[in-house]
Design a protein that fits this description.
The protein is α/β, with parallel strands linked by helices and 254 residues long. The chain contains 7 helices and 11 strands. Bound molecules: flavin mononucleotide.
Amino acid sequence: MNGILYFSSTGNSLYVAQTVQKNMTGELRYIPGYKGNGSEYEKIIIVSPVYSYGLPVHVFDLLPSLRGRDVYMILTYGGMLAGADRLAYEYACESGLNVKGVYAVKMAENFTLTFSTPDFYNKLVLRAAPAKIERVIASICGNEERIPKEKKTKRLEHETNKANWHLIAKDFSVTDDCIQCEKCVKLCPSGNISVKEGKIHFAESCVACLGCYHRCPQKAIRYKNRKKMDRYFHPDVKENDLGKDTFVEGVENR
Ligand SMILES: Cc1cc2nc3c(=O)[nH]c(=O)nc-3n(C[C@H](O)[C@H](O)[C@H](O)COP(=O)(O)O)c2cc1C
């Protein structure tokens, strides 16, 4: 069986992972909950967003447990790859993985705390993605090797930013529109959000995924108290599927 290990906060990478599952079959596993070592899978396909030209914390932390395994990586990004494919390759090799290929698929940008991407542009990008994903799947099914060429990466910038991601939630505030549904508490992959004295409280282990910011049903979470109202979630993904593991398309493991 193939193992499709994914991380996602706004559905882009889950969309790719689900498309891979439809075409190649296999098991979808949400990386924050995955405790295996990959030995149960024939092909392992890691699907992850690019964060600051590198990898999210949970994906980076997964790598050592897959030591010795053959893996493919599919990265989704919002428009600035800047060598992230090569850096992901290097991190995976440093963790002892046998990387067969790294692919990048441009999707809608979700790091939109301080700027907005126009709707029409997001639509164009999302319309172009399926053809690219199809080519990636054909390449993986054909057992092609796709190692990114050696190139300049932004390792230092990535590692500096990563060291500061935990501070992002310090600039989150919650408006009176909050209905205390605690969705943010449940979806946070690092357990960083809780309710304290009747108020949403952000602790110090934010991984900057922005899931809470984008998926609050009331848009009640603000960054630096900006009144921006645009939020993003991939339009063709069911939000409830994010975080789930599925053996067969649409059938939950648990
Ligand atoms: C903390 C953070 C950093 C990001 N850094 C980059 C980046 O360096 N380059 C880029 O093109 N997109 C970047 N993005 C955008 C995401 O990679 C992109 O929107 C991705 O498809 C989101 O995937 P998801 O919907 O599965 O979470 C970043 C997003 C976040 C939250």
